[in-house]
Amino acid sequence: MRKRVGVLIAGALFVAGAGVDPAKTSSPSVPVTLVDATCEKSRVENFMVFVRGAIDTASLTTCHTEQAKEAKPFLEKAPSATLPLLFIDPSIDKHPAYAALVQAGKIQPVKGGFLGSESYFSPVSGRYLRGRPRKPGELAVFGMAFCPASQRVERLLLNFRQAQAEPGFTLQLRFLVTETGGSLFSFHGKEELWEDGLQAIIQRDHPERLRDYLLARQDLHAPQTIAVAGLDAAELSAKGGEGLSLLKEDAALAKELRLADGPVFLWENQYVIYLPQGLVWYAPFERLPLLQPLTGGCGPGWGQAQQANGLGGETESPSGGCAGNCAAAQSGVLVP
Fold first, then answer.
1. Which of 107, 250, 307, 322 is deepest in the core (most CB within 10 A)?
2. Other CB atoms within 10 Å distance of the CB of residue 282
3. What is the 3-state secondary structure (H, E, C) of 84-120?
4. Residue 234: which residues within 8 A CB-CB, separation 6 or more?
5. Helix or strand or coil: residue 288?
6. How buried is 101 (Cβ within 10 angstroms: 0-12 exposed, 13-18 middle, 19+ buried)?
7. Is 10 exposed, middle or buried (0-12, 13-18, 19+ CB in 10 A)?
8. Which helix (H) or strand (E) holds 143?
9. Are strands 170-175 and 138-143 parallel, antiparallel or unpaired?
């Protein structure tokens, strides 16, 4: 994170509820408690801004770190795999938004109050995955070869990393594919699966060529791109089975992390970040040139619900998903 500030008291960071004056609203104040990995002030404040978008008079009582003894009773009520955990006072049932929040599944009743849905309440800086070992400086980007939003983010990060004298992070492309009955499937069909496997092989065996390949792939079909990037088509073709094995590893990881839509980011094996803007909360990416908001994505979950939540961007269907550079797979090179 950028800053680690605040006053820790008994393992918890107290942050006053700012932004809402209960005296100036007809809605009753709703006390909430957080449990998070770090309870950093900037992260907590960012998260509370989002919470108040759904519960306008939410007032933060305290934030407990996961290891604090005060966090134990809250974690017992919600053995969630991710943090922050949002525990809401039972007085929420007097709030005008209560019925809509329950109906939409954004809050669920538990003993002594309510819990905010982890699928809905997510800080820009990402949800913390409990119980995963930290891998310092590792950024994994889960995307799809034919997803325009994935392509933009991958090129941005590859160019940004190359421009830094000391990047401070390693970049790993992972591919959002699924495995059913021993067969692999990609959202944009067999052609995308073929391209995913090809890029996985290039990343593993020729990482110094990956950026050149992805940049050239914007305008050229794969066989032409392979030549422009200085790669050997026969070598890549011979490794087609290995490419599929790499994709099976990605499919297993995406299933474990419950990821279906992309692009999405895994920072240091602990934080799942759903928007590119969330990366700038971490030191290596503070200067990432996000001159224009990067929104949009691909996958079964991208649609009206995301646009209604202000995420906007592209919605791609399995039947019509490929954008301009989704050339048909050419026979003879890495055919799955």
1. 107
2. 22
3. CEEEECHHHHHCCCHHHHHHCCCEEEECCEEEECCCC
4. none
5. coil
6. buried
7. exposed
8. strand 138-143
9. parallel
Q: Radius of gyration (Cα) for the chain, nearest Å? A: 22
Write out the DSSP string of 199-240.
HHHHHHH-HHHHHHHHHHTTTS-HHHHHHHTT--HHHHHHTH
Is the four-CA dihedral 136, 200, 290, 50 of positive or negative sign?
Answer: negative
Profile the chain (336 residues) by mean pLDDT over runs of 10 residues: 35 35 62 95 92 96 96 88 95 96 95 92 92 96 95 93 94 96 93 95 96 88 89 92 95 95 96 93 92 75 47 36 33 34
**CA–CA separation, 236 and 223 (whole Å):** 11
Distance CA 213, CA 209 (A): 6
Q: According to the model, what pLDDT value does residue 138 have?
A: 98
Nearest to 229 by CA among 205, 204, 201, 210: 210
